[in-house]
Amino acid sequence: MKCFGIQLILWSWGFVFAVSVFAAESQRQPDIVVYLADDLSAADVSSYGGTSIKTPAIDQLAAEGMSFDCAFVASPSCAVSRAALLTGLMPARNGAEENHSYPREDVLRLPKLLGELGYETAAFGKVAHLRSAPDYHFDTFDLKQDISDLRGTVKEFLENRTDKRPLALFVGVSDPHVPWPSESTIDPQSTVMPPQLLDTPRTRVQRSRYLQEVKNLDAYLAELRELTNKHLSEDKQFVFSSDHGAQFPFGKWTLYDEGIRVPLIVSRPGKIKAGSRSDAMVSWIDILPTMIDIGGGNVPENLDGRSFAAVLRGETETHRDRIFTTHSGDLLMNVYLSRSVRTDRYKLIWNPHPEFAFTSYIDLLLRETSGDYFKEWMTAAKTDPHAADVLARYYGRPQYELFDLELDPHELNNLAGRPELASVQQELSSELKQWIADQGDELTVFHEPLMLDAPETWLPRKKSRN
C-alpha cells in the first residue's frame, strides 16, 4: 500500500508537471522575425503588381500570409523612418526629423518592451540607422548590412543560439539602396518605366541595376525563411517591409505614394489567413505596437502607433482613416519640408516653403552608381516640352498638392485650387494643420536652402557638402 501511495503521489506530481509544461507551451509567445528592405517601392514587387521582375520569395510569403495594400511609412528617408518604427512615435515627437538624425535620449525604444515581455531581441544589418543601433536595447546586434555578410552572421547566431526565450529577430539588408551594382542580369529594355519618370537609355540602365538588388534581397528572403523555419518554433510571425520608396525622382524624400507606400506582408501559420489582402491603412509606427500586443504586452498609451493585431486576426477590416506623413530634409542635399494627410481616396501635400528648390543626391551628385541618368533629363528638357515639365515639377513644388488617388494613382495631376474640390481641400488642410499643432511640429528648416529663383545654385557638385 505504501508503495502504491508513493506511486500515486509520484504519478500525481508527474501529471501536474505535465499539465504545467503543456500549459506553458500552449501560452508560449510566438517567435517574431522582421525582414527589412532599404529603399524599395511597393510597386516593384510582383505580388504588388510589379511586372519588370519576379520576386518569388516575397510572393511565397504573401501566399502564406496577409499583404497590406495601404501600408505607409512615417517619413521617406532612412533614419527618420526607422526611428519612427522603433519608437512608435512620429518624427516631431521622437526627435528624429531630418535624415541622419536620431531620437532624443528620453524617448522609449520599443525593443526594450519586447525584452521586458520575455523576448530575446537581436538585430542584424540595417535595422536602426547606422550608429544608433546600440541605443535600442537589443540583446545582440551586428551592423554589417550587406547580404554577403548577413548570410554568415545570422546563420551563425541561429545555429549557436542556446537562449530558450522566444526570439524577436530583426534583419535589415542594404538592398536596393544606392550604390547600385555596375552589372545587372536584367535587360534594361525589358523594364517597365514608372509613368512619373522620363524614359531615357541611362534611366533604364539604372532601373535595371536597382531591380537587380530587388532580386538579391528577394533571394536572401528565401534563405532567411529556411533558416528561421529550421531554428525557430513553428509558431512564428514573419514580417516583411521596406523603410520607404526607391531613390528615383518623385520617390524617396517625397510624400507621393512612390515615396511613402511600402510593401507590408505578415504571416503566422494558423493565425493569419493565408493569401489574404487587406485595404486597412496602417503606418510603420503601428508595427512595433502590434508586436508588443501579439507578445502579450500592453501598448503604451502615449504612442502615436497602435496595434493592428485585430486586422491580422480577421476581426476587423479597418485600422486608420487618415495617414499623416512628414519630410524635413536630408542634410544639405535636400533642404525641403513637406507634410501630408491621406485618406483612402485623397491626399493633400503641404509644402510650407514653395520658394525653396527641391534638390537631392540624385541631381546634385549625378553618381555613376545611381543618379547619372539625370544628365539625360536635363539635356532632354532643353528641347522636349514634356521633359521640361517633368523637371519643373521636380525642382518646384506648389504650396498645396491635392490628388484624387482613385483616378490618379501616380499623382500626376494636381487638383489643388479646383472649385469642385474646395471643401475636400479645406477639410484636409484643417486636419493637417491641427495634427501638426498636436504633434508639436515646429516645421524647422535645418539648413540653408537653395532657392527656386536662383537656378544657378542647383549646379551638380563633384562631392557632397555634407
TrEMBL record:
<dbReference type="InterPro" id="IPR017850">
    <property type="entry name" value="Alkaline_phosphatase_core_sf"/>
</dbReference>
<keyword id="KW-0732">Signal</keyword>
<dbReference type="InterPro" id="IPR052701">
    <property type="entry name" value="GAG_Ulvan_Degrading_Sulfatases"/>
</dbReference>
<dbReference type="InterPro" id="IPR000917">
    <property type="entry name" value="Sulfatase_N"/>
</dbReference>
<dbReference type="Pfam" id="PF00884">
    <property type="entry name" value="Sulfatase"/>
</dbReference>
<feature type="signal peptide">
    <location>
        <begin position="1"/>
        <end position="23"/>
    </location>
</feature>
<protein>
    <submittedName>
        <fullName>Arylsulfatase</fullName>
        <ecNumber>3.1.6.1</ecNumber>
    </submittedName>
</protein>
<feature type="domain" description="Sulfatase N-terminal">
    <location>
        <begin position="30"/>
        <end position="295"/>
    </location>
</feature>
<dbReference type="GO" id="GO:0004065">
    <property type="term" value="F:arylsulfatase activity"/>
</dbReference>
<keyword id="KW-0378">Hydrolase</keyword>
